[in-house]
Design goal:
Layout lengths: L14 H5 L3 H13 L5 E2 L6 E2 L2 E3 L4 E3 L8 E2 L14 H13 L6 H8 L3 H17 L9 E9 L16 H6 L10 H4 L4 H6 L4 E9 L6 E9 L4 H11 L5 E5 L13 E5 L14 H16 L6 H16 L5 H13 L22 H9 L1
Parallel strand pairs: 6-9, 9-10
Antiparallel strand pairs: 1-2, 3-4, 4-5, 6-7, 7-8
Helix pairs in contact: 3-12, 4-5, 5-11, 9-13
Length: about 375
């Protein structure tokens, strides 16, 4: 049997080097990821890219342009702008984010690095924000699997099984139930608390593009929606899948009308089989949801609707880079982080600067159209 990738030496080829890294080496590595190997820097004040004056003791640079003279560090103008961490701690945080296949627990990283859980939460939130803004939304081609998975709003099992007699509702309210006294949770045979939890239920509709034979999924676009229906599925399909693609889904009614869009569409009835004899399946979506659910139960112990999209994008990134070596993951993510601007959603989070509301499908559709 072939060896799993996580058993290979490439999956751990950065850990030993990171254990011996110094503060100077950490700063040099972050500068390399941000500005390249030419020993030149881009001044955040005037934007001039050249070799600026180094202030070694303060670990900063001063702009060489006379009209500017702006002072900056390697983290200025990045998501880590105004941080109170050492450069090695920043590098260790990025490493901790990438090294776990199903995500990293805040308390586990906090104990490992000696940082407060608040600091880990805010900085991990900044990394997820970078992944959201850096998500590749170009329309998919080739074979594309589409499916929806339900998260959040999970009901809790009661201590005693609620068994409602068939005529219990009629005995209590008569033949016609008054609208003011109707209790839908009684009709559904659940507690009021569980009925209220259903309001937090969300659906993640994921589009996965197949790679070569045996390669599995190559790219994922997970979008959080209120329901799994054509109201959400059709606009997302138009925006993220090309008309010459071959789309495979399950038998859900949300996807039955895809042929009207001029797309070759095949469905598999999951009530009867996982895959048809012709090979029609949506197993790449099921693989994505399997990893995301394992993280929900085993790592994060639950998602919340407001930040469910952040976690979905994180797991999409992990799924797309599942075969990358350890140093490739760190290099790629660090370059992406230090190539972006300041954080808007997590800068000053513990001082009350919170993102308002959930990220919706309309947000991604507008971004794709821009």
């Amino acid at each position: 049997m072939a060896q799993h990738f996580l058993h290979s030496k490439e999956s751990r080829n950065f850990a030993k080097a990171l254990n011996r890294v110094t503060e100077d080496e950490s700063e040099s590595y972050l500068a390399l990821c941000r500005w390249g190997p030419d020993n030149k820097q881009a001044c955040p004040g005037c934007g001039v890219f050249r070799k600026h004056y180094r202030r070694k003791k303060r670990r900063r640079w001063r702009c060489a342009e006379i009209a500017c003279r702006h002072e900056f560090s390697v983290t200025s103008g990045t998501p880590f702008h105004g941080h109170k961490l050492t450069f090695k701690e920043i590098l260790l945080l990025i490493f901790a984010f990438t090294t776990n296949a199903n995500g990293a627990s805040l308390l586990q990283v906090s104990r490992r690095l000696g940082l407060t859980p608040k600091s880990v939460q805010a900085n991990f939130g900044k990394i997820r924000e970078v992944l959201i803004h850096g998500l590749d939304l170009t329309p998919m081609t080739g074979t594309v699997h589409v499916d929806g998975g339900h998260f959040c709003g999970k009901p809790r099992k009661p201590n005693h099984k609620i068994r409602m007699p068939k005529d219990a509702i009629a005995k209590r309210y008569g033949k016609k139930k008054p609208a003011s006294t109707t209790k839908p949770w009684v009709e559904m045979g659940m507690t009021k608390q569980n009925y209220l939890r259903l309001a937090h239920k969300r659906v993640v509709i994921v589009f996965t593009q197949a790679g070569k034979l045996g390669e599995g999924s190559r790219r994922s676009i997970p979008i959080v929606c209120r329901r799994e229906c054509d109201e959400y599925a059709f606009p997302l399909m138009k925006a993220f899948v090309r008309r010459d693609a071959i789309v495979m889904t399950d038998e859900s009614g949300a996807y039955t009308g895809f042929t009207a869009l001029g797309i070759e569409h095949h469905q598999v009835k999951h009530s009867e089989m996982f895959s048809t004899s012709e090979g029609v399946n949506d197993n790449m979506c099921e693989t994505f949801f399997s990893r995301m659910r394992r993280a929900e139960y085993g790592t994060y112990h639950g998602y919340r609707p407001k930040y469910l999209q952040d976690y979905a994008i994180e797991h999409g990134w992990r799924d797309d880079n599942r075969r990358a070596s350890q140093d490739e993951l760190v290099n790629k993510l660090t370059g992406q982080i230090f190539g972006s601007g300041k954080s808007n959603w997590w800068r000053g989070y513990w001082q009350g600067n919170h993102r308002q509301g959930e990220l919706t499908a309309d947000w991604f559709l507008a971004k794709a159209a821009a």
